[in-house]
Design goal:
Blueprint (H helix, E strand, L loop, with lengths): L5 E6 L6 E6 L5 E5 H5 L7 H23 L6 E11 L3 E12 L5 H14 L1 H5 L5 E7 L1
Parallel strand pairs: 5-6
Antiparallel strand pairs: 1-2, 2-3, 4-5
Helix pairs in contact: 2-3
């Protein structure tokens, strides 16, 4: 399996400095600051990138779980909210999932969501953080 890389450069102290975070593939590069991380300043932040990782991974994994049960999702849309608390520490991740899956009933969908939630790969990297999934079959 491949190894993926990313990098970051930070200049200055915590409150007044700034940095750049980038994906090794070159598909994303963004600036970040104390304000973009701990307030509502412009730029990205590590928590936002963690959220994108969870959302992307979960959508793909749920689609695979559904396919393994004989269902093809028209779409699986996942948004992620990552909360940073005091300490600072990440204190929670909430995924909101909407899926359009022809022929699938609510009970079976809930079971597949539970399977995906227990095993999507990015969740293993965040094992110390509570993850909540709200799923809606559209």
């Amino acid at each position: 399996m491949p190894t993926r890389t990313s990098y970051a450069v930070w200049s200055g102290d915590l409150r007044n400095g700034s940095g750049i975070v980038a994906l090794g593939s070159g598909s994303f590069e963004g600036r970040y600051t104390f304000l973009s991380r701990f307030a509502q300043g412009e730029g990205t932040n590590p928590e936002e990138l963690i959220g994108a990782s969870h959302a992307g991974c979960y959508s793909m994994f749920l689609a695979e779980v559904l396919a393994g049960a004989g269902f093809t999702a028209d779409t699986v849309t996942t948004s992620a909210s990552v909360t940073i608390g005091d300490g600072p520490a990440i204190v929670g991740i909430r995924l909101t999932v909407e899926a359009v899956v022809p022929g699938l009933d609510e009970e079976a969908f809930a079971s597949h969501v539970e399977t995906a939630t227990a095993g999507y790969p990015i969740s293993t990297a965040s094992g110390a953080v509570p993850i909540v999934v709200d799923a809606i079959l559209v």
